[in-house]
Amino acid sequence: MGFLGFIKGFSSVYRAKPRIRVYPSFCQHGYCHIQCRTFSHFKDHDDSVLPVLIVGAGPVGLVLSILLTKLGCDKKRSTVSCKTYEVGWVKCSVLEKSKSFSHHPQAHFINNRSMEVFRKLDGLAEEIQRSQPPVDLWRKFVYCTSLTGPVLGSVDHMQPQDFEKVVSPVSVAHFSQYKLIGLLLKKLEDLNFHICKPEGLNDEPFRGGELLMGYECVKINATGQSVNVTASHLKEGKYTERNISCNILVGTDGAGSTIRKLAGIELRGEKDLQKLVSVHFLSRDLGQYLLNERPGMLFFIFNTEAIGVLVAHDLMQGEFVLQMPFYPPQQSLDDFSFETCKHLILKLVGQELSDIDVIDIKPWVMHAEVAEKFVSCDNRIILAGDAAHRFPPAGGFGMNTGIQDAHNLAWKIAALVKGIAPSSILHTYETERRPIAIFNTALSVQNFRAAMVVPATLGLDPTVANSVHQTITDGVGSILPSGLQRAILDGIFTIGRAQLSEFLLNEKNLLGSSRLAKLRRLFEEGKSLQLQFPAEDLGFRYLEGALIPDSDGVGAQEQPTGCRKDYIPSSDPGSRLPHMNVCMLSNSSSEACISTLDLLPGDKVEFLLFIAPLEKSYHLAVAALKVAEEFKVSVKVCILWPTETIKGAEARSKTALAPWENYIDVAEAKKSSDSSSWWSMCQMTEKGAILVRPDEHIAWRAKSGLDDDPILEMKSIFSAILKV
Question: Would you give the DSSP letter of residue 289?
């Protein structure tokens, strides 16, 4: 299926009957359903209603809770770390149905954009970089007949520019999900969040700042101004229900989302792309061997006795996850006992290991689906992360897309809670993020298909295996006894794996030599499974939403190619702000150099206006500051000076912007004399201006200045962005 065909699979929206009880509310015209009204403010005096309730304490839910908690207004000193934080009015609590956090590694690749988000979480990105394995231990994918046998090929997914920090101030990372969750929990504790179990709670209303373990959402009722959630928990040996009222309910509860199901929101896309069994195990001996002999992140192993993909989460600690194809009902989970899995691991390793410790065995199904909507029930029920979209793991888009969902959503919720924007601002979350999810789903599927080309080249086409399985399960083979079905399936797979015998797969065999040559070309041309997609990781763009498109229209979204493409900086509205190192010119900063992305704070809803030190641009900046005050939103002006004209910069800006003080003078920190200037990199003239949102995406730009009344123009701009 091509990209356009894939996208069409998401175009028809199925209007399922919601399982939320919707009550009528009174308006000036009489009774109408709640979808006809919005809530413009929160009742601060009503402590029984929580502003935001997040269901699901995976990476997405935890990141969202941190972002919301940091987007406060009152300084508060942490009793844990003795640091001062902006904590206050974006109160939120988190429900998690599990009583404890899983130690299964799960997701492990963190892309550039997610690491940029983590830089704003009190040094989280730096902690990840310090704690992750050295990059030389995970930069490659290795293809082999066994972990100690012949190597069929390898692909290095890191290029020199990935370490130069030219397009981003931070590099990608390889860090297991459970370790990430541990660091996120520490950040929450530093923000005075309390991790609670049912036994330690009374019946008082939740006041925000709680992470409640062992609470499962079982019912949702949407009333006129709030969402009432019924959560079940085990207390003193009995299941007890507790009602929680909130203004906004965010479902970050994973691929099988309860919130999505209770809200009656359907998924669109491809189901059951592949069924697999995941085996989490430890072996320091194996880790040490691979570390010394053939380090890598993924090992694709093909031999006559077993086929699998080994994910090396940490070679130094010897922590691995083995993924193997799974074909129920002919196979069952009982066929993958601990002893059987140890035996299969040894077959794939190719030699004996004495320290294999199988921790966990889980079946899972690969899907490629996106929710028909991300926001429902008058902008009060919202889906994010895997609850809103579930991808093949190829390319690591699942967790990363979810983290960026949270980043997009947090400032909009904060703007609503603070009274800066109406609830319609939340609908722009769906307008912006759903097309990105659809695109990333298509790219993930394309990357997954590329992974399947390798075994197909070796004579093992997975599509043939799946067709044989379907014929046995649903076709003519379905009338056969289950035992005979299993025997036929095993026999066919054994014959298929014979294609991988040393007799056939070698340079002296004509067929084997041809297959190996074709495999090498696949790797050289970048047509196998890819790890990094800089153009998509950093270059994704919102085409409509809380932004002002250019007057000359919006360009069409490029189709994914499945190949790595370099990121090209862009100042198009909806794009992420380009990274450039700049030096702060204030006396107190000692000319410290930072990224342009660092000019936006992570602790308040603030827009950033880039201008050059020109008279008309200063007038525009003054207009923006005046209008922002009227709209009750913070704007900081950044005056970007060419390096050769910084003398007297501060005095000039102070005079031009008086009495306003929320501005900063910076100078370009060019790496060399032939480096592009800021305005040329943005493909604009210095007469232009760029307005950046709190999530570091460009809300509006003027390519070459404004001819109209700047006050009227800025009023129109902020009205359109904030939906007021």
Answer: H
